Amino acid sequence: MPKTMPKILIPTALRQFTAQHDSVSVTGATVAEALADLTAQFPEIKKNLFNDQGKLRSFVNIYVNDEDIRYLDKEATNLEGAETLSIVPSIAGGTATLAEPVALSNEEVARYSRHLILPEVGMEGQLKLKAAKVALIGAGGLGAPVGLYLAAAGIGRIGIVDFDVVDASNLQRQVIHGTEDIGRKKLDSAADRMQDINPHLIVDKFDTGLTRDNALGILKDYDVVVDGTDNFPTRYLVNDACVILKKPNVYGSIFRFEGQATVFAYEDGPCYRCLYPEPPPPGLVPSCAEGGVLGILPGLIGVIQATETVKIILGIGETLKNRLVLYDALTMRFRELKLRRNTECPVCGDNPTIKELIDYQEFCGLRPPAGQAAASPVVSPKEVKSLLDQRAAFTLLDVREPYEYQICRIPGSLPIPLGELPKRLSELDRNSDIVCQCKSGGRSQKAMDLLLQNGFTRVRNMSGGILAWSDQVDPSVPKY
Ligand SMILES: [Zn+2]
């Protein structure tokens, strides 16, 4: 059997297991042998690539010379002549229907003149842009450049879905917001900036997270959906909603120095689930809040998303359908991987099993299946951090006294002192998950018991309180 010596390209998220090497030379005649050599050299990577049965995990895709081998007997794939194997894990992202033709005013003709003299756009194309309706999920790092450029390009109507508030730590990359916007709703800040760029733009504001209950209703009125989200539940939700509604899903994702972009659910192309049938387990893939992100990176990926959106609306050029662009800012290299629709895909396959939206928190392992009690009513500070970073829908209830909050508190917590809790139960949502938290875990246990006695069911206690949070999550939180 011929022995070859291919290189395995290691993505950023896995380099912690390969002594920070971005590529590893291996020997082996098949993918299985090459991966076995990799795990022999770096044993720690094994549990991230393979499950307990020794099968490649479903959120890990392997490409040989940029060809997706997922639908082949991948581990037996012969490597003869192959130069590179790429490991591509998930990271935490229909033709436009045109309304009645509209006319451009003289002011618009002047504004769009550089488009109008492009034969590929022209008056007809500019009218298509004006008639187009784009939904933008998230007004954050990716949403910022998408919103700015789509507004400038003359898209007629943009719906923004976002419930967040501008924070100082956003300004390093979310260039649609300014310093004076800190504390404002991103929705308002983004809409004001976009309408300043282009007063002809109509902005629809959806001051909410996208949920199983509202997604189809919100997205059905738009021609193209741009996914600028930063968490797995919303990514799968956007994907499934786009497949069900037959709307193109312009995808982008970013992590540290690397980005991905493509167009899902467009014409006969694949969807996000074709690429990643299942999310990674909670906590395995760090969020940008944990892992960091180069501030400029979402600018570039978002501009790719805006470009694809405009091309889809105009019907020009060649879109990223069936292609995943990988971008590495450190090496300034773009790579492109071929994607294929999976005929067995549970949502866009030939015999789909998912025909309506599901519980995406549960699907992503962020809470136990409905009807089952939580495995344990205790949750660790690290798990709480992960839930906060993924913007999971839950309430972090801080039951300490007001003077204690003034010393330190966990951002995003809801303060209700234990003594006031019995008469303030109406402030809590019985249908949402609640995590109780105090200084060291005693009072929050009492709060949890009180809530359970009052008919709340989805309640857990954060073990060790804010003191454990300081030890395990954020040492800058003072211990008192
Ligand atoms: Zn699919």
Q: Would you give an account of this structure?
A:
With 480 residues, the protein is α/β, with parallel strands linked by helices. Helix content is 30%, strand content 17%. Helix 6 (143-153) runs parallel beside helix 7 and helix 6 packs parallel to helix 12. The termini are far apart. The protein binds zinc ion. Zinc ion is lined by residues 270-271, 273-274, 342, 345, 347-348. Zinc ion binds at residues 270-271, 273-274, 342, 345, 347-348.
- What is the straight-line distance between the termini? 66 Å
Arithmetic mean of pLDDT: 88
**Ligand list:** zinc ion
**How many E-type strands?**
18
- Strand content of the residues, in percent? 15-25%
Detail the poorly predicted runs.
Answer: 93-101, 370-375
The number of helices is 17
Secondary-structure map with pairings?
Layout lengths: L6 E3 L13 E3 L5 H11 L4 H4 L10 E5 L2 E2 L15 E6 L16 H6 L1 H4 L5 H10 L1 E5 L5 H11 L3 E5 L24 H12 L4 E5 L8 H5 L4 E4 L4 H14 L3 E7 L2 E7 L7 H4 L12 H4 L5 H18 L8 E6 L4 E6 L21 H4 L14 E2 L1 H9 L4 E5 L3 H6 L6 E2 L17 E5 L4 H12 L5 E4 L2 H8 L8
Parallel strand pairs: 1-5, 6-7, 6-9, 7-8, 9-10, 14-18, 15-16, 15-17, 17-18
Antiparallel strand pairs: 1-2, 3-4, 3-5, 10-11, 11-12, 12-13
Helix pairs in contact: 6-7, 6-12
Concise account of the structure shown:
This protein has 480 residues and is α/β, with parallel strands linked by helices. The protein is built from 17 helices and 18 strands.
What key attributes describe this structure?
480 residues; alpha/beta; eight-stranded mixed sheet; five-stranded mixed sheet; 30% helix
